[in-house]
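Issue: copy button drops trailing tokens. Both records pasted manually instead:
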Amino acid sequence: MAPTFADLLLSPEVLQAIDTLGFEEPTPIQAQTIPLLLEGRDVLAQAQTGTGKTAAFALPLVERIDVKRRQVQALVLAPTRELAVQVAEAMHNLGRTRGIAVLPVYGGQAYDRQLQGLRAGVHVVVGTPGRVMDHMRRGTLDLSAVRTIVLDEADEMLDMGFVEDIEFILNEMPEERQIALFSATVPRRIETLARKYLRDPQRVSVEHDARTESQTRQMYVEVQYRDKIEALTRILDLESPSSAIVFCRTKREVDELSATLQSRGYTAAAIHGDINQAQRERLLQAFRDGRAELLIATEVAARGLDIPDVTHVFNYDIPDDADAYIHRIGRTGRMGKKGDAVTFVTPREMGQLRFIEKQIRKNLRQVRVPTTGDIAARRQEALRTALVTAIESGAASTYYAALVGTLAEAHDPLAVAAAAIYLANGGPGGRHDEPTTGDMDEGEPTAEGGMVRLYLDTGRTHGVRPQDVVGAFTGEAGIAGSTIGTIDMFGDFTLVEVERRAATAILERATVLSMHGREVHVSPAREKRERSGETTEKKAPTARKKPRTRKPS
């Protein structure tokens, strides 16, 4: 049975930070290294990018810091300023509950900011060898109280010519100190460095998953945070993946995203650390069997899954580092099969994306969010292909051919064929959504093609939420959740976009709905606006909810 973070004897404050960040269980490198570092042992760890090594040394450092002493007690050396910043941020997040002060120092940044931080007093310094050595020579960095030194990506630092800087720094360290050396490879020069400076080091070696597969197309979408769900659903509608994993950073986000997708007509299973084993197995089996098309998961919860046919991986949140990125996208493109990996990136996260690209030595291809026209075109092409296949395979029986022949005696054969497709693809009595190819008739309240807007005399001031509207429409009016589009909520009224057929059904069946214990009246939006003088042009919180696009049967 795999150990938990609690099994590693970490303090409640540190465990709280781990839980807040959404980490669920330690990786192998963490499980092996953390106890050794907590004991004060020197460690030589062979760990590649993608194994979770940052937390493997950051957690023991955070645990052992004496927060009452505002002195540098730990030093982490990294080969690049990007890695130094990343490690510093990780240590800050992990040490937040203990009040750990962390300062990154690296070349290219003004000395003033670094000097200000050093004068204020910090517990941990994370820096590049050159800038750390520069501060030491200037007398602005006092390392006399350092208890632990970490060499991160040691082989890369040696490749970059930092060996003399590293030895200068190590020679200036206190006699009683602990050294942890992390390296993707352990060539002779690393062995030599370890023999010279480490004392009876404990060796740790962890095998890492294969690097990013060439069979996996790696892409990213630049999108504002508020538009992520819209971007995700549009890509899902365009691609129609049969088996996809969506990664979120935290357990809470997994639950929220899963609920949102389910309300929009997707079959989604959610797994994270709070799911018991029996429930986890049941959900995973549904995903393997195809009863759930989407698996929403935290990174750790998805570790070790044996699902070879995952076609798509979506990073709903950009991974914290290259380690997490590699592990996530490794779920697709397996066993020689092709796969797609799409990462959602906000404008503020572009720097983080570039750093990941540098670490994995690959540039991700930028793609745009599909338009409704793209989705309609894809659906029509899929329908055309299905029809051609049916015609060429002779799937249509003699009965259907005879029926068409009879109808063709009184009607244009082209009109007969179009009517049959209309019924099969969403007309009255049909099974699927009608493609949105044209605009609404002039004068009708419209949203996007094929959608109409309804007015509800309730809003935010009455405590109504978008999910309440969806529940009332699907439960009382009996329409499918996939027919509901944008929900614009105002103070005392709400505007809801629904497909034309669904709007007709609502107005015929349930013009009065129940929400939060009060009657809510439904009417066409334009009629109500003209009578009341209200306008929909003012800004309001918007819950984006597009109609679900289904594959032709």
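Record 2 (pasted manually too):
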Amino acid sequence: MSSRKYSKDLVDGPNQAASRSMLRGVGFTTEDFTKPLVGVASTGAKVTPCNMHLNKLSEVVEDSINASGGKGVLFNTITVSDGISMGTQGMKYSLVSREVIADSIETVVGCLGYDGLITIGGCDKNMPGCLIGMARLNRPSIFIYGGSIKPSKENTDYVTVSEKVGEFSKGIISKEELIHFEEISVEGPGSCGGMYTANTMASAIEALGMSLPGSSSQDAVSSSKNQDCVDAGIAIMDLLEKDIKPSDIMTKEAFENAITIVIALGGSTNAVLHILAMAHSIGVKLKLDDFTNIGKKTPVLADLKPFGSHYMSELNSSGGIQPLMKSLLEKGLLNGECMTVTGKTLEDNLKDIEPYKDNKIIKSFESPIKSDSHLRILYGNLASDGAVAKITGKEGTSFEGKAKVFNSEEDGVKAILGNQIEEGDVIVIRYEGPKGGPGMREMLKPTSAIMGLGLGDKVAFITDGRFSGGTHGFVVGHISPEAADGGLIALIEDGDQILIDAKTDQLTLKVNDDEIERRRVAWKSPITRPKKGVLSKYAKSVKSASLGAITD
């Protein structure tokens, strides 16, 4: 039976009696040894609201697999929290966790001979980590998104609190008011509610075809999310029967669909990093310039936070991302022939989808929020290998100013909150790249402080680190080569003129070549890398952000 391609080597025949004996010890029956084994990888943990409910959902999945003729086997992998560790040394482990998750899923499934795989993720790095693991294994697989949290009764969320810190530092709000927002803004299970990285990646994965229709927008605590888990257990058996694998779904055209959705939704810059890494893991040749090419013809249509007004839960009430996908398909912006985990093509999945009703969130193609992509891939002497900007147009499309340079996020935040930043400055935070951090920390703390201080349209911010999906303002990240590799960002000095031009997609340090060469000869890296442990291993193996910060 083709659907038992791997497990038969583990459990069939007299020579595997000892293996079967161990499995009987965890509850297997004689009949179970004749069924396809499906691993259920949960990233559930009580370390973050995004993932606190996922173990319960994974049990629903396991039961559904068992009821559908398979044998589900639940196991766990780790998760960390960007939101909790933001602005601390702990944030260095966030992007690293993507690789740990992928490695651990590959390790368990590869070792134990599961024929299929369902993964459940909730926080930013879980999702690409799960997809990378699935791609490496290339067995029938489905991803389930844990779902989005709802905003508070005062229409606030985690990013609101981050920005209130800036308001507090400026004296706009009192400590009591800050604590009030802290207490009311995050309640119960679910990922951050705007079009931040979690919802961006969930949407990208649904458009990619690796999760069931509707999975990306459902509320974390809802009957629809529970049904999503039941449906996934049924769908995986169909994929096993038809032998539909990630390589059949995760094609170049499918990744182009995912990029299109990310742009239309106004998604996070982190999507660039993760989509590149996911494509690499399945052997699809994707590059930064693909984002530019797709961005030229794809408008930003969604009025969603952080730069818009609405939350994912509101979009879900209007129909989720499916009506948007159908509109994009009808405009020729999506490839409808791509296979999905339903066993049908994207076009087949969207055939009966009705348009949005009373929709105030998704704008028309005639009146978009932005006529082309907000994700800009910049080049120039400061980013010869590329950089990623998130520019909606609200901030303007170009910025020139004097550099204020910091060699760590902590130094930058201290200066911002200490009111040492002036209108017209270009804040430079460096040695925070994949190798330099190591770990490429997200910069929500400094960008939120900038917004809270009312400087969002008055200063710019560049870094070889990256940005939270909650970031907005005139920001450029992923600058490659990074400072730790001797990239030009390492040679910037206070007062240098820097030009960021999102019309020509250029990032330029206005210093003459002779002076740059003088600085290059004198340059010595000020950082000391970890000598052991996971950060040390990561720094030695990780590649440029322009390649997706891949490690293999």
